[in-house]
Protein 1
Amino acid sequence: MRAASSFAQALTSYRPAVRALTFVIGLTIATASGQAQTTQQGPVTLGWVKSTANLLAFIVPKIGEKHGLKIESINFNTAVDISTAMVSGQIDVGVLTPIHLIRAIENKIDFVQIAGNARGNTGIVVSKKLNLKENDWAGLKKILSEKKLKVASSRGSINELLAIAELSKHGIDVEKDIDLINVANFGQHPQALRSGDFDMIITLEPLSSLAILEGTGTLFTRPYGTAAGDLNTNYVVQRSWLAQNADKAQAFVGALKEASQVLSSDKERELKAAVQLTGMKPDILSAALANNRYDLGNGLPEMEELARLAFERHYSTRNVAPELKQHVDDRFLNAATAGR
């Protein structure tokens, strides 16, 4: 449990200071086996947050060697810190949620998505005391007709917006029917159920699986049934960097494509990587990874819906949906998947 708590805190601390753990993967060229020498693309700096949803970022530095890349991988506490590091030029590529891309566009920061990452990773978990089964919407509405439930959520997160959309789809008004309380640090969500102070949490993996497997919570639903889909994270760069480093971007997306194939086809390796990354128990991680899928597609229609939701909920000052297509560049993924 100590490892789980430590990992959860590392996932979600909202301090502005960056705590970066850097490791550099040396560049090697496979010539002894008779393979053609890979074109050298030079270094790329990647910023990401430790999460089971970001296993591609964890293994891509080694795979990047085959694509001529020397990838310097840096862990940050939050996506906000990653955005700041991108603007300052500390890193070249960042793993962000679509909501962070939306906020960048809103603030006239010229970020461009070059690939998706993973989908899923969100869970709505209810207290065991409510005696609700998965997707028991009728049961939930009956409880809500009698009292408001206290719901812990990280305000403005991708997880919260997907959950709000799902609740609304089933006729639950989050403004009137529940008491949605901002608990910014995701690491505190399992404890919110554990303490009995909250009836429900809207959270991410592996914390939703942790709350379920430790016996304090029950999975109510995965909120993927709306037009926003199961969006989670993507790979983003600054347009100015991209203009000067198209070859690096192409090699990087090619490495991502290979990494996604590796993890999708070898679940044992996927679990081993998750254990190595997080230090958490395999049963928790297996459950978390079941709520995760690798999809490098742009997710543009879903992001446009998310932008509408963000504006509707006053998490952004304007609806940037019409602008999003100008901030998605598919040419690298199209080239990486051509002929496959």
Protein 2
Amino acid sequence: MAIRGFSIDITDKVNSNQAITFAQWIGASNVMRNQKLTEYKSLLAAQKGSEINKAYSHIRKNKVLSFLKDIPVQLMRNAAQDIFEDVEKWRKGLVRFPKHKGRSRKRSIRITKEMFVLEPLGENRSLLTFFDNATQKRQRLFSIQLGYAPHQLCKQFRISRQGRRFYLSGSYNDGVDSATNEELLKGFVQQNLSDEALLTQITGIDRGVKLPIATSDGLRKAYSPEKAERLRQLARKKARYQRILAAKKRRNGNKNVRRVESKEQQKLADKIANFDAKTARIPAPDFERSGASSQAHYRFGGLKVR
């Protein structure tokens, strides 16, 4: 069975109180993540990597971070567990060592089953309801209809924030059999196809700037003139604010040029993040046909062959 993902822009579906709560949860989760990451770096520098763990209660008890006690403990647990798993992946050589996340970057919280319920709505729909905490006196916080039956949906969801935009993401099992990359490769090997025969069964995809997508069978995906102009406008405005922010950091004498160290700098960083969100919301390019690309990267599944 195939596990697939979805992401929904819920910005227009949340009221001000819900947005404030989600923002507080996400901010606190990011603080927990960064605190644990700083702790891990110190342990690694002191050759005490074996002491890296998921413990988080000592961070919640920190008087400087007293606001963390107002956040559901399950969210703090999930944040600590997520960064621990990221570091474990780094240890195995699967990913780069994680970095601290600032307020201008996309951040998220992982909400597990203690804080939501899924109710069936007809044959292939569900009502997802988040609660403000996991106690018996919990109150409904936010509800949204999803186009999947409860048994198809995952046991956890994420609420993400990019600038002023909020997104809900999760995964579902659509019940459709889908071959893995290994199964696809094995099938092609067993057929013992020649290079020419193999290329007829593979679509080549080339990513570019002027032309976002071009395929080896002549399919082109290009932005319309209106969308292209909108992208240029956003890029120019973003570059302008980036120059302003860089100048303020130089005048301020920031110790770390990658971080903001004043409220004015933070406002500019938030504006820059909003430009990224606006760019992401521009509809996908339109399709058009033309000759095949001579510099395509041939793909099948997640594999790539030159």
Protein 3
Amino acid sequence: MDDFFDESQEDWKAILARLSHVRETGDYSAEDVELIRRELHAEDERVRGAAALAAEGCLFEPYILDLIIEIAEDDPNPPIRKAAIQSLNLVIEEGLAQGLEDDSGADTSLDYAEEWDEFQTGGLREDYQRAKGLLFSILEIEDDPEIQGLAVNALSDLGYISEVREKIVDLFQSDNASARRFAVRAMGKYPHFWDSELETIIKLDTPAELLKEAISASYSSNSPDVANAIEAILNHEDPEVLRYALLTLTNINQTKNLLEVLQQFILHEDEAVQKAARDSLEMSTRRNFDRYLKDYFGMGE
């Protein structure tokens, strides 16, 4: 009997290792897809959860998406449902990339027309609508704030839609720390909608994990007020917060004395902060040089 349990333990460990390897490398052979398809039915919850995560890279293979949607809806184990919902990100991303949210959709180039026709008449449109419908239904009926947060995160590329933005607000106002982090992460897709909210939480007394999410979400912002808020926390004691802050502040590029600010961190005691400062200086210098070439010599960037 002991030998049986030892062998079973080795089996699930080997399967987890293989699923993890496939997910990390992104190299899905036919055998790997079949493994994932099989293990999505596994009784062992550890294996089933790992398969749900690995399925993100092969969702459009036969029956994989059907199984992921079934797990996202009905699996009795919440962490496995979360893994399945997380994997649905790719369906939304692919649908948007192919213009399925927009009637204009197709690229006008002739060499793209045949490929576009396959997407228009084939399964991607149906898959996209199924995944989107499920994620919206989760937002309406699910009580678990983390599951709601994962659904919002999967829909965050649709953050210009009022229903998504309303749910982001609900999660942002939640008392659940994890839900708030998901909401802030979703804000990063369209930060110009959320400048005032992001500014309110980029403060020294904000918990470090939420603060990093807010700084990261601000990366594509153009707001001077958000830049000022980030500059005001550059005495934070957490090196990771400083690293995020320097890179985001540089990308926003609304700080008048930015080069001087960055220079202060070149000799910081933390090597990761030093590297962020050097990378930021290089980014800022290159941007300024490109602008100089464009303004004075009419050269493209």
Protein 4
Amino acid sequence: MEDFYGIKELYDVDLRLTKPIDICGRHYDVNESILKFNTAELANLNEIKNTVQARGGYHNNPLIDWETDKEINFAITNGVLSPISWSLLSNSKADNYDVKSICYCERLKTIEDDEYCYVDLKFLPNYCGCLIGVQGNPDNEPLPMGRRPELPLKPLPPKKDKFFFIYNEDNGKRIEDFKIINNRVYFATSYRNIYVDYTTDYKGSIKTINIGERLFNNYLHLTGKMTSKNERTGEVSTVLIEIPKIKISSSLSIRLGKNYEESVISDFFFTGYPDENTRREKQLVCKISFLDKELTGDYL
């Protein structure tokens, strides 16, 4: 910053609500900050204007010019995301859960005793075997003697989030004959190496983002600060930026791999629109205020 003059860095960027909302079981009120960037690695701000001219008369000269600020495109490049940031980035709902069925795979060597061959799984499987349940009466058959008829018990369809498969890793064949007690699996036939593909119930504080289920269709309010250094006096001051009406226009784009040396980078794209609650000649898209002092002193 010592050799730089002008506006350099964007920090303390807040996205604030224009309407209340609930995210992950927490209620946010109007003007409450829902997402904050302490510093932006990169920031880009582009204004889009619409200019129209009315021509006429001799040589078709321009008579009237209309200049309208249509919108402003704003982009911030930031680092690793929190769950709420992921939710806002994709405009998807986020919920809290206490239990989540997750898949887990293990390669194990069996243990032999006098009667059984068995293995001990790392987690307790949620395998329930073949479930038997009462079937419905969709045809509304008449009830004999005014009582509900005894409907036969039939196997219920398996749940997609609960499964249990065992394979003999030596020949790749699936093993059907086994018995489960807690997290121990017994086999009637002796095996050496097995592969277990199963699900277990994880219990804890779980945040789930439902991509495609919209979080909200409201507008947000953006505020931020920039550091400015005067080229003549060298004095440092703070510049405030405000965009009263923005929409998040980002899409999820994730790049993962062992060859990436840096953390996952997220690009947030916003579109600012004129405030329609004011008169047309006073509608603004963005407001930039130059203070005569520096507020924090932390970003020099």
